[in-house]
Write a structure and sequence with these properties.
It is built from 6 helices and no strands. It is mainly alpha-helical. The longest helix has 16 residues, at 62-77. 5% of the residues are buried.
Length: 79
């Protein structure tokens, strides 16, 4: 458990987010606030809506999410 906690803590550190954004074009919300805005612009993170248009991320309606959860619980129960 200590190892997992340490890894999560390190992965959320602002300097780690800075490295991830500059190197891989990836970051987390906790650390991106500390990154220079010009770096975020260069990586395409300055406009979240524009960024999400280029991905497969889609909002899920609450009703559909509940149906998925219910179906998953049935599968786990062996139904």
């Amino acid at each position: 458990m200590k190892i997992l906690t340490r890894r999560l803590t390190v992965s959320l550190a602002p300097d780690v987010s800075d490295h991830l954004v500059k190197t891989f074009g990836y970051g987390n919300g906790a650390g991106t606030a500390a990154i220079d805005h010009t770096v975020l612009v260069e990586c395409g993170f300055d406009n979240l809506d524009k960024f999400l248009d280029k991905t497969l991320f889609q909002p899920v309606a609450p009703e559909l999410k509940q149906r998925r959860v219910a179906e998953f619980e049935k599968i786990e129960a062996g139904y």
